[in-house]
Amino acid sequence: MAASTQSHRNASSLRTASLQAHASTAPDSPHTPKRAVSTTSAFSSPAPGTRDIDESMVFEFGSRRFRAGFSNESAPRCSSGYGPEEQRRAGDYRRWVDGYENSWRKRKGGKDWSEAYELWRMDLRGVDLGLVGDKIERVVRDAYQKYLLHAMPRKLILILPPAFPRPLLSTLLTSLFANFQLPLITLLSSPVLSTIAAGLRSALVVDIGWHETIITGIFELRELLHCRTDRAGRMLSREMGKLLARESMKSQEWHEAKDTIADDDELSDEVSFEETEEVLARLAWCRSYSQVLRLRSISRQESPEETFADASEQLETPSVAEGDSEGAPPTPDPNDPAIIFPLQSTTPPMTVRLPMSRFAEPCETVLFAADAAADENWDDNEVPVHHLAYDALLSLPRDARGICMSRIIITGGASNIPGVKNRVIDEVAALFAERGWEKVRGKAVERRRTKLEEINRNLKPSRRVEIQKTSEYPHGDTPFPLHTPSPGLEDPELDPIDEKLRLENAHAVRPIVHGIVRGVETLGPWAGGALIGGLKIKGIAQIEQDKFLQQGLAGASKEGEINVATQRFSMGPGVPRGVSAGERSSWTLGVFG
Amino acid sequence: MSRPFPYTYISCPCTDTSTPVCLSKRRGVDEVTRNLAKTPLGAGDDAEEEEERTFDPRSPRSNYSLYPLEHLLYCEDCHQIRCPRCVLDEIVCWFCPNCLFEVSSTMVKMEGNSWNTSDIGILFDRPSNITHQLERVANGGVPGFAEERAQARKKVIAGEDIPEGFAWDVDLTPDERFGKLKHFYLTQLVNSSSSSNSLDLSNSYGYGSPGALSRIMGLYSGITGYGNKKSKARSMPMREASTVADGLKLLERDESVIEKMKQAKWDDTTSLSQRAEQRYPHRFLSHILVKPESKVQTTRFRIRLVALNYIPTMNLRQLQPILKDYNALPPLKPIQFLLTLHNPLFDPIRITLATPSHTPGRFASKVTILCPEFEIGANTDVWDEALSTGSKEKRRTKAESSEGQAEAGKIWEKGRNWTTVVLEVVPASLDPTPKLPSLPEETEQESTTEDTVLEEDDDVLEIPLFVHAEYETEAAADGSGGVAGAEKEKEKRELAYWCVLGVGRIAHSAS
C-alpha cells in the first residue's frame, strides 16, 4: 500500500501525465509542459526531481480530528483524534490497567457530553486557549514522529473552516510556528478546497461537521456566503446517546419508575461517549426521501395531529414490545430487522436488541428536524440542514444560484452516514419544487398566484385558436391572421455549418449543467489541499515564521492593502521565486482576517 | 493510576513560555485573548499574579508539561531542562527488529516497507498491487474477479470507449480520482496559462520548454508573431471537470448500502478502531521496514543529554512504616515522608524547596517541608566517602529512624551525594463536610449532587514542589582561553523548576 501511494507521488509519472495532456489538447507551438512538480531550481534543466523535498505538508484541523500528510498524495498519512487518552501525562499507562473501561463516569466528571474529545469549540467563553495550544502541539508532534517522519523545515498548507475565530487562529499559528520549524504557512479555506477536490469551480458546499453545519456558496472559487446551524455531528451523537440510554434504562427494572422523568444529565451518564460514537458509526443511517413521504402519508391517515416522529415510533413499537415481552425472537421483518449489539459501558453491561429503523431516528430529528412542524420558525442556529441549504441557494445571486444548485457538495464527518447525502439533495429538490426560488411565501402570495393563473388561463385558449387559424390557412388567399407567432417562438433553422462546428467543438466545450438540483462527490478538503499543494499554487494568505513571531496576528494587513497583481506579474521570469524575504513586505490573512 | 506511588514528575519550564510568549507580546491587541485564556484558570487574578501563581498539577494543562525525569533531556548550551516538547527529533537511522539492520531515514522514506513475505511462503512478482497478486495466489494463479474489475477500471481511466452504464458501474477509487483530478488541473493550467506565467504556477519559468524559448526569441528578434498567436489561442479560461475522465463524480444513490446494513449483524460492521487501521496502512509498517543490504550509517549524534545526569533525582518514602498501601492514605492524619535528593553533578548543590502549604484541588491537603534549605554533596569518587572522616555524614540507625522525631530546620540524613529531609503531609478528607456528622439519608441525597461525586484522580494526593538548585562549576571550556590556568574560573549556575510528587491516594472515609 505504501508502495502504491509512493509510486503515485512519483515525479516521473506526473511528467508523463502532463505530456499526455499536452498531446490531447494540441497547443499551437511545440512545447514541453512546465514541470509543476519538484523543480529544485529555476534554472536547472529538467532532471529527475528529488522526490519529496518540494512537497509541502498539508494539515487539516477539525474539532474532532486532525489530518496530516503531504501534498500530491491522495490521502492523509494520519488522522488522529483529541480524545482524553491522547492527552495523558507522559508515562501514564492507566488505560491498559484492568477495569479501566468501567470507570468512565468518574473520568467524565462534570464535563459536557463531548467536551473531552474536542480540540476547541466555537464558543470561546469557556475555552482555555493555552490548553488548545497544548493539544495542537501534542497532536502535531505525534504526527511528526509517527507518520510524517520529517523534521526538516517545510512549507505548510493549513486548512481551516471559513470565518475561523481570530483567537483560535492566533493560538493555532503560535503553537505551530513556535514549536515546529515551519518557514511558511498558507491558509486555505476548507469549502473552497472541497470544491477543488470535486473538480469544480462553483458549488454549494454543505459541510456537516462536528459543532456546526457550515454551508458555503462558492462561485468561481470565491466564497459568496456562509450559513451555519448547530444541527451537526455533536447533536447527532448526543441524540444517539439518549436513544441508547433510554433503551438500556428500559431493560433495567429499577429505572422503570422514572423512565419518563429521566433528564439529560442522567441520560448522559448511562452510556459512554465512545460507545455511542461506535454505534453511530456502525449502525446509524438515514431514511430516503421517498421512505419519509410514505411514512408521512401513513401518519396522516392514522392521526392527523400527530407529528412524524410519533408515527414512526408507532410503526416500530410493536416489534420492540415483542422483543421485550418475552425472550423469544420477534417475527423477523425483512424491512426492519432487529439488530443485536453489546453495550459495555452501562452498569451492568448488556445486550440490546433494537429494530434497525430506530437507528434512523437521530438523523431524522437532528439533521432534518422531522419532529418539528413542517414550517416552523427556527432560531438562526437551529435551522435544519436542508432548509439552510435551500435558504443559502435562495440568497445567492441568480447566476450563481443556477450554477451552484447543480453542484451541491456534501462533506464533513456526519455526511458519511448512509443516506444522508441523498436525503439532503432530495429534500432541497423537494423544497425547490414546492416553492421555486421565491423569497416571499404565504397566503397572500398564494392568492396572487392563483389570480395570475386564472388570467393566464383566460388568455391561453384564444391564442391557441389563432395559431390554429394560421395553420388552417397556409396560403395567402385567406385574410392575414391578426397575430402571427413571433419569430422567437419558431424553431431556428438548422445551419449545417453551425452544426458541424458544434460537433467538432463538442469534446472541448461542454454545456454547463445548471438549473437542476444535483449532487457531486468530493474527495474532501484535505485532498483539495494536497492537490493545490501539488500544483504549487501560491496562496493569498501566506504567513512567514519570522514575521508572525515578531508581529503576531496584528501584523497582518487588511485584505486589499496588498497589491496582489504586482506580486503576480511584476516579477520577471529571471527572479527566482520561493520564500524570499523581500518578496512581500506585508502579509495578509486573506479571508481569515 | 498512572505510575506506582510515590512518583515524581518534573514540569518542564518551557511550557509557560512556549505559548503565552507571543500572546503577552501583543498585549494591546490580544487583550481579549488573554482574558479568555485566563478566565478558566482562576477568577480575577491579575497578570502579575498569574506570573507568580503556584503550579497546579490538577489543571488540565499540567498534563502537557509534566514528565518523568527519565523522559527529560538537559541542554548544556542553554543550561535548561528540555522536555520532548522543546526538542525536535530527527531520526537518522531506523532499526529493523526483523532483520537486525539499521537503515537511514532517507531510505525509509523513499523505499517504504519491504517486508519479507517469504517467511510465510508467499512470493510476489512485484512490490505493488498486492491485493490482486494475493487473489491470484488464492485463485490458483488465475486472475480473479478483482483483477477483471481492475482491468475494466483501467479502461475507464484510459478513457477508452465503454458503454455509458458500465462506466458508472466501475467506480474510481479515491486514489485514482485524485490522480485524475490532478491530471485535469495540470492540463487546465497548461492550457489556460500563457507563457507569461500569469497564474504564477510553478517554480520554473519554463526555460525548459520550447514554447517559452520561442517567446523569448520573439522578444529579442522583434517578430511579434510569436506572442500574438499564442494569446489568441490561449484565451480559453479554466473550466470545471465535466466527465468521469476529468475526475468528476456525481452523487449516487446509496440505498443499496442501507439494504446491506439491514442484512448485516453488529459484527459485520466495521468498528471505529478497524477503520482507523484500514485507512492509514503505513502506520505500523513504516517503523519496521528495511532494506537489508544497505550498510550501517555513521551516525552523527546531536547533543542530546539525558537530564538524569544534571538534575537531582528525588525519591519519596515514608519515615515510619505505618502505611501498608500508598493507595489508601488515612485522611486527616499527619504522615511523615522522607524526601531524598541525589546529586548527579560533580559539584555540591544548594537546594531550596518550596511548596504551597495547601495542595491545590478540591481537597486541599496540608504540606510542610521541615527543612527547605540544604546542601547536597558532590558526586565524587565513591572512595572519598569511605576514606574521609565522616564529618559530613549524618546517618541514622534503624532504631533511631523508627523512633526518631523529625526536627524542623534540620536535615534528616546526609550521605556522599545525597540528602534526606522530612516532609509532613496531612491528607485531606474526601468527605466534603467532615465536621458535620450528617444523617445517612442526607448523605444519600447529597451523593447525587455534583459536588460530592468524585471525579477521576480527585483522591490522588499530589504535591507541587518548587526546586531551586544553585551550584558553582567550572566554566565551559570552549578553547578560547588558550592555556588553562591553574585555577579555572568558577561559574555560578542556577536551575529552577516545578515538580510534582505523587504521594498516593487518600482513602475514602467510608471504608
Topology:
The complex is a heterodimer of chains A (593) and B (511).
Chain A: H1 2-9, H2 11-25, E1 57-61, E2 65-70, E3 78-81, H3 104-108, H4 129-148, E4 156-160, H5 166-179, E5 184-189, H6 190-197, E6 203-208, E7 213-219, E8 222-229, H7 233-250, H8 264-268, H9 273-283, H10 289-302, H11 308-325, E9 338-343, E10 350-355, H12 361-367, H13 385-395, H14 398-405, E11 408-411, H15 420-435, H16 443-472, H17 496-505, E12 519-520, H18 525-534, E13 542-544, H19 545-551, H20 564-569
Parallel strand pairs in A: 1-4, 4-5, 6-11, 11-12
Antiparallel strand pairs in A: 1-2, 2-3, 5-13, 6-7, 7-8, 9-10
Helix pairs in contact in A: 4-5, 6-18, 7-9, 7-12, 10-11, 13-15
Chain B: E1 7-11, H1 14-18, H2 20-25, H3 31-38, H4 47-51, H5 62-65, E2 66-68, E3 73-75, E4 80-82, E5 93-95, E6 102-104, H6 105-111, H7 130-138, H8 145-158, H9 164-169, H10 174-192, H11 210-221, H12 225-233, H13 255-263, H14 272-279, H15 282-288, E7 305-306, E8 313-318, E9 335-342, E10 349-354, E11 366-369, E12 373-376, H16 382-387, H17 398-403, E13 413-414, E14 418-426, H18 440-448, E15 460-474, E16 490-505
Antiparallel strand pairs in B: 1-2, 1-16, 3-4, 3-7, 5-6, 8-9, 9-14, 10-12, 10-15, 11-14, 13-14, 15-16
